[in-house]
Write a structure and sequence with these properties.
Helix content: under 10%
Structural class: mainly beta
Number of helices: 3
Oligomer: single chain
Order of helices and strands: EHEEEEEEEHEEEEHEEEEEEEEEEE
Largest sheet: 6 strands, antiparallel
Strand order of the largest sheet: 13-14-15-18-23-22
Number of domains: 2
Length: 313
């Protein structure tokens, strides 16, 4: 892969001291601005057509516009951002966390820390942030309002099903439940949200969730039901990889897989296409994935690859 060019991201001195510049799990480029992370970090580019640098850094805490789970100073661990219409959608990893063992720890202390797993409720965030020129706001003059998924949300819903329930208490680095990709499409108020799971990978199959968050009566988001189900699951054969990022439309979904903690598989990009969006019930192979493969020497046949997809509610 060749690097066409690089773009500088210029943060304030305070952000550099807080290592914000070194902790960028997700970035969204939109016109002349770039935003991401547990707060929304906005950088303005010098040339929207061909930017060479993003500067004029401004930080917007998410807690100023939506109610976040957990304590005010807890890590939100935002892993994905997506712009759709007047909203910037953000999602946290929702993964549990096991305490880290350091070389200086004694055997007894190491064993104690390895036994400690926290649920990290602050990471269980799915929110839409209304943008006004383009500053995050509780409500814009056009009527768009910021909101987050309330209690009794996604994790509680998945705990009622058989596929992901055993993995909700595991950490993301141990094939536990770990959200990293988000894609949103549809008109404002009628959006479909796709969440790509880095984990778990079920016997080599990655999981893509489809939700329909809607504004509730109390100002929070609630998951709308379709056919009696509030969450659709699509299972994808990505050679044992999880989903790191995804971009979805009404008919097509492109996934960028990510390795699990101990995986050594090569990373490719896949395209899942069909008459229906990935959340509908369907079984069978998708169209050939768009992928980057190493050149095959002359005289040798390219090995056939097995790809497939299945969807359940």
């Amino acid at each position: 892969m060749n690097v066409a060019r690089t773009v500088r991201l210029m943060f304030t001195a305070g952000a550099v001291e807080a290592t914000t510049h070194a902790n960028l799990p997700a970035v969204r480029a939109d016109g002349a601005h770039r935003g991401e992370t547990a707060t929304v970090e906005r950088l303005t580019c010098d040339d929207p057509a061909r930017p060479t640098a993003h500067r004029d850094h401004v930080s917007f805490p998410l807690a100023d516009v939506v109610d976040l789970p957990g304590e005010a100073d807890d890590e939100v661990d935002v892993e994905g951002v997506c712009r759709n219409g007047p909203y910037l959608w953000v999602v946290g990893s929702r993964s549990a966390k096991r305490r880290e063992v350091k070389p200086s720890h004694s055997d007894a202390k190491a064993a104690t820390r390895l036994a400690s797993v926290s649920a990290e409720p602050s990471r269980r965030v799915l929110a839409r942030i209304a943008l006004a020129d383009p500053v995050p706001a509780e409500r814009t003059p056009e009527g768009a309002s910021s909101a987050a998924l309330g209690r009794g949300g996604l994790v509680e819903l998945l705990a009622e099903g058989e596929h992901l329930r055993p993995f909700l208490d595991l950490t993301g680095k141990e094939n536990g439940f770990d959200v990293e990709g988000i894609a949103v499409h549809g008109e404002a108020g009628q959006e479909r949200v796709h969440l790509g799971l880095r984990g778990p990978v079920l016997r080599g199959w990655a999981v893509l969730l489809q939700l329909k968050p809607r504004a509730g009566t109390d100002g929070e988001l609630v998951l709308a039901s379709r056919g009696g189900h509030r969450c659709a699951k699509t299972f994808l054969d990505l050679d044992g990889l999880g989903i790191r990022a995804c971009v979805c439309t009404e008919r097509t979904c492109r996934c960028s897989p990510g390795r699990r903690w101990t995986s050594t598989a090569r990373v490719r990009a896949y395209r899942l296409a069909g008459r229906r969006s990935p959340g509908h019930c369907r079984r069978g192979p998708p169209r050939r994935p768009a992928q980057r493969a190493r050149p095959v020497p002359r005289g040798r046949r390219r090995p056939r690859r097995r790809t497939g997809g299945a969807a359940l509610r």
